[in-house]
Amino acid sequence: MKINELIEEAKKARGYAYVPYSKFKVGAALLTKDGKVYRGCNIENAAYSMCNCAERTALFKAYSEGDKEFAALAVIADTPRPVPPCGACRQVISELCPSDMKIILANLNGDITELTVKELLPNAFSAEDLHE
Ligand SMILES: O=c1ccn([C@H]2C[C@H](O)[C@@H](CO)O2)c(=O)[nH]1
Ligand SMILES: [Zn+2]
């Protein structure tokens, strides 16, 4: 699947964002190694801390269906620069995705930034830091 196709999938997911509080719609599309796409949108809550980002929605959907091998993640929002994932999502992405996996950040103007998981969260805390 081409990068622009994955961005289109993320854009479709963005249409389902439930954002009555921020009005800030985000969409994500997670490509598995065998070519399947899991879409995600952000889902907010009146108890603000329960808001779930688009990126984590897509990852948790895939994981809960037994899909764990990922090739790329695209994220899109209506931002001046390609949307930067929040710190919580960077941590979850770095736990569940390969460190050299491609992350594609986009906005509605067609600006695109491509980077890897380890570039998105350098020096991440990980399982290797637990125990001795
Ligand atoms: O990369 C991002 C950044 C923000 N949000 C969501 C969280 C919240 O619902 C809204 C405003 O922060 O956007 C995402 O889904 N992904
Ligand atoms: Zn996030």
From TrEMBL:
- One biological-process term from Gene Ontology? pyrimidine-containing compound metabolic process
Q: Where is the CMP/dCMP-type deaminase domain?
A: 1-128
What InterPro entries does its record include? Answer: APOBEC/CMP_deaminase_Zn-bd, CMP_dCMP_dom, Cyt/Deoxycyt_deaminase, Cyt_deam_tetra, Cytidine_deaminase-like
- Catalyses which reaction(s): 2'-deoxycytidine + H2O + H(+) = 2'-deoxyuridine + NH4(+); cytidine + H2O + H(+) = uridine + NH4(+)
Q: Which GO MF terms are attached to this record?
A: cytidine deaminase activity; identical protein binding; zinc ion binding
Return the NCBIfam families for the record.
cyt_deam_tetra, PRK05578.1, PRK12411.1
Give the record's family classification.
Belongs to the cytidine and deoxycytidylate deaminase family.
Q: Which PANTHER family match?
A: CYTIDINE DEAMINASE (PTHR11644)
Any idea what this protein is called? Answer: Cytidine deaminase
